[in-house]
Amino acid sequence: MTIPIFHVDAFAEKPFEGNPAVVCLLGEERPEGWMQSVAAEMNLSATAFIRPVDRGYELRWFTPTVEIALCGHATLASAHVMWTENVAGRSGPIRFHTKSGILKCNRAGEIIELNFPATSPIETVPESGLLDALRVRPCFAGKSKFDDFLVVESEEIVRSLKPDFQALRSIPGMRGVIVTSTSQDPRYDFVSRFFAPGVGIDEDPVTGSAHCSLAPFWSERLGKSAMTAFQASKRGGIVRVRVESDRAVLGGKATSVLRGELAA
Fold first, then answer.
1. What is the DSSP letter of 91?
2. Between the CA of residue 233 and those of 18, 28, 204, what are the distances in Å?
3. Helix (H, G, I), strand (E, B), or coil: what is residue 263?
4. What are the pLDDT digits (tens) for 188-245?
């Protein structure tokens, strides 16, 4: 039996931008080890696996090395595939059952909106070795539900970071680290980068789940509920964010790059 697979660029205005993800449409449950092997074979920052369940679809995400509890860009890619391949009807939201609860995806014209939990960072002392590995001195250090969170004084600092990935990889128990500042470009409210070598991703091109922390943090400081963010990786990507109570609504575009079948 072959399995339909799709290579999608998420948070991308056109192909070869944003963050690529693989989406696999499963007809039945598959072993976790098999899904991890597929993700390692795809070797992207996330591979998503979707199968029908009662009143929606189960969605799981794997990096090349581990399963993760929340992934924005692969959720956006999954919703894009469900609609473009006519798996889900276009009249209502898609409900994904995930390790982070039920996540709803809606269409707003060309934009796909993801309704995610907001995970505001709490100010903390940085992990031992973190600042040396990033070669940076932040003006705010915190921790969200999933990641370390550092604010620096300028976009120039964010863009110029050259982390010691081996040193980051050696920090125990850390999924990733977000580094952010306000934007010097009037098109955007803030910029960020995301590093997660501990889960097999040195730098993630565009990280939806990181914006679950970035959105409430910058909303409070900038006095805005709706903002436009830019993740300043090499590929780059635009994330539209909106804070609604304890939820972070993340919006972006996606484009399919490849369709195929997995013979495994």
1. S
2. 9, 36, 8
3. coil
4. 999 999 999 988 889 999 999 999 999 999 999 999 999 999 999 999 999 999 999 9
Domains and CATH numbers, the chain: 3-115+251-262 (3.10.310.10), 122-245 (3.10.310.10)
- 3-class DSSP state of 215: helix
How far is it, in rounded angstroms, from Cα 232 to Cα 194? Answer: 9
The neighbour count for residue 27, using CB atoms within 10 Å, is 10
The predicted-structure confidence for 64-83, as pLDDT tens digits, reads as follows 999 999 999 999 999 999 99
Phi, psi dihedrals of residue 67, rounded to the nearest 5°: -80, 145
| Number of neighbouring beta carbons within 10 Å of residue 95 | 16
Q: Mark out the alpha helices in the chain (DSSP H runs).
A: 32-42, 72-84, 130-134, 155-160, 165-169, 211-222
Which tokens hold the place of 191? 């910029």
